[in-house]
Amino acid sequence: MTNNTREKLEEDLCELAATLAWVDPEDVTPNTSLSVIGLDSLGSIELVARVEAHFGFMFPEKNIPMLDTVIEIIDYAERVVKDISEVDGT
Question: Residue range 68-82: average pLDDT?
Fold first, then answer.
């Protein structure tokens, strides 16, 4: 993923997190704890769904609760994509 694409995804997810948590978008950065801003599990699932659509794969549900920031969600997705690419040889 290019830096511009990652930055855009981070920005979009921060805005979505702010909307879902009913907080000012200025208060949400890629490193903001989603639980601290009051984002519940359904909100986290919405963020993950956005990333899944971006990358084209589904996260294992057991891993979603461990992801508490936008950065953690995107980093996890990038690791999974890398692992898939290595297994597929692409």
Answer: 88
